[in-house]
Amino acid sequence: MPPSIDNDLTAAQNELFNWIKNYMRDFQHSPSIRQMMKAMGLKSPAPVQSRLRHLQDKGYISWQEGKARTMQIVDEIFEGVPIMGSVAAGGLIETFSDLQENLDVSEIFRKKDVFALTVNGDSMIDACIADGDMVLMEPIKDSFSLRNGTIVSALVPGLGTTLKYFFKRNGKIYLEAANPAYDPIELNLNEVTFQGKLLAVWRSVRN
């Protein structure tokens, strides 16, 4: 069967995309740039990297340039999780029976350069983010556009990377916990580097 061709992909992009899908199906991990160069008959990594950027921009792959084995096929990350109704956290309600719709989480992974961080500590517990959770973050391109109350990951000298609420007041930056046991961190703008803003929280429940 010939490879499928998507209308919004060029022939070169489609060739690489189909090859990547077949490779990842066979080997269960993403190929290296060198392997893609060889498969496409190219002598330079630049054309491969250009095609990968286009595939990412068009929502076909999730990929962190310069980091090995980070590629994922967006449609294969999640096709959608079935929403089967609702569940009571108080009194009982009628159990679910019929599929109502799908919860589409693929949009999260279509965003460019999404990355994950493991949460250490309980400073965001009142925001339902617990120790051991995984947070999915979207890179912050312009810190001046951050809105007060956004949950961000920030690099603070002497403290490392921390997950906190962002607030800006009177020319100062405040990183505030969602736990009254922790005091706010007060900083000048040039004392902090914002890495990402929260997209989603992933919690693996173990029995």
TrEMBL record:
Indicate the transmembrane segments per the record: none
HAMAP family, per database record = LexA
Q: How does it assemble?
A: Homodimer.
Identify the enzyme class. Answer: hydrolase
Give its E.C. classification number: 3.4.21.88
- Where does the LexA repressor DNA-binding domain start and stop, copy by copy? 7-70
Question: By what name is this protein known?
Answer: LexA repressor
- Keyword field: Autocatalytic cleavage, DNA damage, DNA repair, DNA replication, DNA-binding, Hydrolase, Repressor, SOS response, Transcription, Transcription regulation
The UniProt function text for this chain reads: Represses a number of genes involved in the response to DNA damage (SOS response), including recA and lexA. In the presence of single-stranded DNA, RecA interacts with LexA causing an autocatalytic cleavage which disrupts the DNA-binding part of LexA, leading to derepression of the SOS regulon and eventually DNA repair.
Entry annotation: catalytic residues: S123, K164
Q: Which family does it belong to?
A: Belongs to the peptidase S24 family.
Q: Where is this site: Cleavage?
A: A89, G90
Q: Which GO terms describe its biological process?
A: DNA repair; DNA replication; negative regulation of DNA-templated transcription; proteolysis; SOS response
One MF term from GO for this chain?
A: serine-type endopeptidase activity
Stored InterPro entries: LexA (IPR006200), LexA-like (IPR039418), LexA/Signal_pep-like_sf (IPR036286), LexA_DNA-bd_dom (IPR006199), LexA_repressor (IPR050077), Peptidase_S24_S26A/B/C (IPR015927), WH-like_DNA-bd_sf (IPR036388), WH_DNA-bd_sf (IPR036390)
The protein's gene is named lexA
DNA-binding region in chain numbering: 33-53
Catalytic activity from the UniProt record: Hydrolysis of Ala-|-Gly bond in repressor LexA
Residue ranges annotated for the Peptidase S24/S26A/S26B/S26C domain, each copy included: 82-198
Q: Which Pfam families match?
A: LexA_DNA_bind, Peptidase_S24
